[in-house]
Amino acid sequence: MNDKIKTKEELIKELHKSHKEYDLLKKSYSKDFIERKSTEKALQESEEKFRSIMENSADAIFITNQHGEYVYTNKAVSVMLGYTYEEMLSKTITDLSPGNKIEEYFEMYKQILSKGKVFAELELLKKDGNCISTDLNAVLLPNGLVYGSCRDITERKQVEKLLRENESSLKNAQEIAKMGSWEWDMVAQKTKWSDNYLAIHGFKSTEVEPTFELFRSRIHTDDVHFLDENLVVMMKDKTPSSLELRLIHTDGTIKWVQNNISPVIENDKLVKLKGVIIDITDRKQAETNLAESNQFISQIINSIEEGIIVYDGNLHHTVWNSFMEKLSGIPASKVLGKYPTEVFPFLDEVGVIKNLKRALNGENIDAIDFPFNMADSGKSGWGSDKNMPFRNVNGEIIGVIGTVHDITERKQAELALKENERKLHQLNLDKDLFISILGHDLKSPFNNLLGLSEVLTDEITNLKTEEIEDIAKDIHKSAKIANKLLDDILLWARAQQGKIPFKPQILSFKDICKDTIEILTPNANSKNITINYSATDEIYIFSDIDMLKMVIRNLVSNSIKFTNSGGSINIDAKQNSENITISISDNGVGITPQNLAKLFDISEVLTTKGTAGETGTGLGLLLCKEFVEKHGGKIWVESEVGKGCDFKFTLPIYVEQANATNN
Known about the structure:
Blueprint: H1 8-55, E1 60-64, E2 70-73, H2 75-81, H3 85-88, H4 102-115, E3 117-125, E4 131-140, E5 146-152, E6 179-185, E7 190-193, H5 195-201, H6 212-217, H7 224-237, E8 241-248, E9 254-266, E10 269-279, H8 281-303, E11 307-311, E12 317-320, H9 322-328, H10 340-343, H11 346-349, H12 352-360, E13 365-373, E14 380-391, E15 397-406, H13 408-459, H14 465-496, E16 504-508, H15 509-526, E17 530-533, E18 540-544, H16 545-561, E19 568-575, E20 579-586, H17 593-596, H18 620-630, E21 635-640, E22 644-652, H19 655-662
Parallel strand pairs: 17-19
Antiparallel strand pairs: 1-2, 1-5, 3-4, 4-5, 6-7, 6-10, 8-9, 9-10, 11-12, 11-15, 13-14, 14-15, 16-18, 19-20, 20-22, 21-22
């Protein structure tokens, strides 16, 4: 026999060596198997998380291909339209379009494909043949599919009960990773590869001679430098290492391998390298799938026009989508990982925290409306929050999923409607009282006219000329009072109906005062009253000339009426950065505190006689208030009994200010 017979000791030594190589292979295999399983589990949970978010959304969510064929619909679609999931997969967008809308909706779909998104209201056909109105938000995804969500706005109510979750599973690669051992004797310059090592490369044992150069030549060109750098470090440090590389298979495909290397040291000298390579292609593919899945989920979540929030088992934020960033003004970086009240303390007070805890215990929580005011971002408004348990693939609750809608406009409309109803009710009450008061005031001059005319009719042959003249003067006086009252009523009514033209322009206040003083000087002279204009600088205002003259004329006439003979009236104007304050003051009889509160109240029309018995309609100050407020100004009075009155009102300086107010 030519073969050398091995001794018992040599056989035992080889047996120990085989055991060590087996242990090394076993450890390497176990490590890769665990890592791959972990990655596959993460991918599965990520996809379940995505499906859970989509399936539990209150909005109807669908995905179509570029031909308009539905490839996915969530449960809310079936609830809204009456079709089963399987029926929906056989439908196209035109199948759900009313007959007269098919062409229009087809053009809308082409717009999504060309512009990337669309927001619109449209009608959809239900299975029972009825039409419902919906609002649509659709976006074109990077993979060419169209994602859309819509809400039934016909009845404006949310889905009350979620359909049972469809159980679905994704098929994952379960193949056991192959691995092969190798050895490089650096002293003898010999290399050994196991059969499995050769199989990973695509070689057969009879085809090639194992060498380090052959192994290096099969590494992807972009990864060769990683191998070289790793060997340099190992030669220097003489410590084990592990690195992942891309390997070119003999059939041209790319495989990922993990190369675990252990140095053999003898007399402090590196003499051998031993190790295993593990085919981790499946694991790498799972990691890629996980990354793509996470990216897809992220794109969907951040495309949805509703807030998506996901909390972990401790109610710390794990998802805060783009809509929530826009609604709150708070970026995700300041929210993720934190308990809700750490960022938004008011959530406890409005009941959101209580509902989150209930959802964590398994309850599906109906939406609640809450106000918000973000001090940090300045954002404020109203939100609607709905929460439900977030379950893993085993049905265990691992957190909470929340959806938030911005209902600020709806709440503002509701509040505005209530306020308008209140104002309208009060206005009707005030107008009823106003008309009652005016009716009483009109009755007095007409009673005088009737009484005096009756005296003339019955006694004219017995009356002297002087008596007839006196009666005629009284009739004329009563007619003037009635006419003035009717003129004021008609002017007030036109103002209330918006029928008085409002044509503001730049005016010289000095010229306006001059014209007014000239008109009213005869009335003032009859009571020996002086009218002074004390503004020193030329002031320009932006006002409707007829309305401004009417306001100044009414206020000056009012001062003449309630100022004693020998008194004085001062007109003054002062300008600041925002407006002009005009003052018309007198040293007349003044106004009692009780009457001050009634001056500009439509329900308290005052008709007090002047110092010389002058009468009025009581509407002048109401018209002044109407015209001043038309300019965006305000009017008020300061008075003390026996010392006179100071009526003041403001007007804008700039054209932009007046225009903005009037608009």
